[in-house]
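User: Structure tokens for this complex, please. No commentary.
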Amino acid sequence: MAIWDYANPTRFMRLADRILPWLIGICVIAFAIGLYKSFFMAPEDYQQGDTVRIMFIHVPAAWLAMMCYSVMALSSIGTLVWKHPLADVSAKCAALIGAAFTFISLVTGSLWGKPMWGTYWVWDARLTSVLVLFIMYLGLMALWRTMEDPIKAGKAAAVLTLVGALNLPIIKFSVDWWNTLHQPASVMRLDGPTIHPDMLVPLLVMAFAFSVLFFVLHLRAMQNEVLRRRVRTMRQKAAASARPAAATATTQPAE
Amino acid sequence: MFEGLSFSLEGGVALVVTGPNGVGKSSLLRTLAGLVALAEGHLTLSGGVDDHTPYEHAHYFGHQDAVKPALSVLENLVFWQDFSDAAVPHGFAGDGMSPHEALELLGIGHTARLPAAYLSAGQKRRLSLSRLLVTPRPIWLMDEPTSALDTASEQTLLDLMNGHLAKGGMIVTATHTPLALTPMRKLHLETAQAGEGEAV
Amino acid sequence: MTGWAKALFLRELRIAVRIGGSGVVGVLFFLAVVTVIPFGVGPDLNLLARIGPAFLWIGALLATLLGLDRLFQADREDGALDLILMSGRSLELVVLVKCLAHWMATGLPLVLAAPVLAIFLNLEPLAIGAVTLTLLVGTPALTLIGAIGASLTVTLRRGGLLMAVLVVPLAIPVLIFGVSSADAAIHDPVPFMTPFLIMCALSLIAAVVGPLASAVALRFAAD
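Assistant:
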């Protein structure tokens, strides 16, 4: 508890305060450029028309969904191996953001799928894997919510995250295999052979903007979590500080 | 459980039940609380409030605290105040305190807004005890009331119990520690003759 | 009478929403059940659309059962059940209020999640509406019937599984009429109202029988 309260997180809070304004600035600029490029400069697709622009949100969100999990896995190693006091804060905060990005990629994906496949959802290998990833994120968040003690919850979640990290490739492989077993004829494959540079540049700018957005949100969320834990500790101390019983003065309970 | 056990108690008097472990002190209290059905015999309360069974006149203060860690201390107490029906028969001068007063009196007023999960065992016990103060009921059934309490809280508890007696309430308590209650009668339970009771 | 019922209702809701968030976990379980179905039956959208209402109902039934074992057990473990029995309040009404709060915290989120999950199973808008409506009317019956199982197993340490075994047969009629009214809405010639009204009646019966039976069981459990 002592380390928790003073040493490391305090320095982290100060550092985050100094970095955040710059990151926010970069994030805003990158989004301005990226959104302008993808909505006004990038050409329409000759088959899909304007619908293709969903890609500029959808693809970076999907990338970020996976990146968040990597951040969580690294943080979990930090929790279990080095017992770094900020590692489980980092993992916990990344889970929520990761779930949000996964959700965005699922929603934009299904909105994109409607004009292309005629339905909001197909059990395509890639979509299904992302859905499984989403469920894992939500499960981790539920685990964190259910356990009262944040330190214990952090350890439990770290174990689950690492098992999940080992399992994700296996899940991906199995889902691919399952999907080729029943490849539905109606599904049009998405993987166009090449992306034209006019589309690739905005996509990369957007991916950069999303990554910076992740770091901004992640740092802020970590600051909030550190504060939340301090409040928790203070409240526990407040409960423990036994005030001298007021009862000694009053022998007669109800006037 | 018991055979040939018979006793009566009038308002303003405490009955202290003693006896070795496992003799059935807790069962006796739970029977009085209406939680265990009587195999035979009967339990009557004279001069009670109409439409109320004897156990609806009683507070049961047992080993368990019935404190929900997810709720705040005040929420815990206010719930029991709103939920339990008060019973103030003729000859009992009890009136309910406000939840804040009760918590303050028991020395946990500063925790009112905190989640009950943060309380220590003794504080939870006191929170549970505060329930008896906010809903006036004439009979207090207390099973080992002093467990998990420190000396100061024990004194507070004694003052509260004597105050309850002074207002015409009744207390039936099972305890191993001697309690300075006045006026008091003793009921000693023995295992030798299959739990034969004898009021002293 | 309304005062104490409201106090109980709010307490139950607060406990359900704060730590643990059993409603959220229930929805998550529902999502997980719906997700594994295509792995079992294959990703054929036409097939999924045909069996979708049935699987949504089974998922909702399992998710409801999952959260029910704590309905009375938590109160028994910390002694609150004893105090509730002594409170002088009608135990049948207490059970009813607890069930209502439990349904608000766990059943209603399932009903709200159902339209989203229906998209995964490729249901038509009409079918989505029908399934959601039947779940809205039917899940209270599941909770009320489940309360009987929950109060029968309240003294057992690991009563959850046994409770599910006890309750599933009792829930079959609700499942039959829920699924058949959802199906009736999709396939035109069958009238929708007949099975739907029978299911409404089942819910009303459960609202009477559930509290009565579980109050009896809880009184026995106090010994």
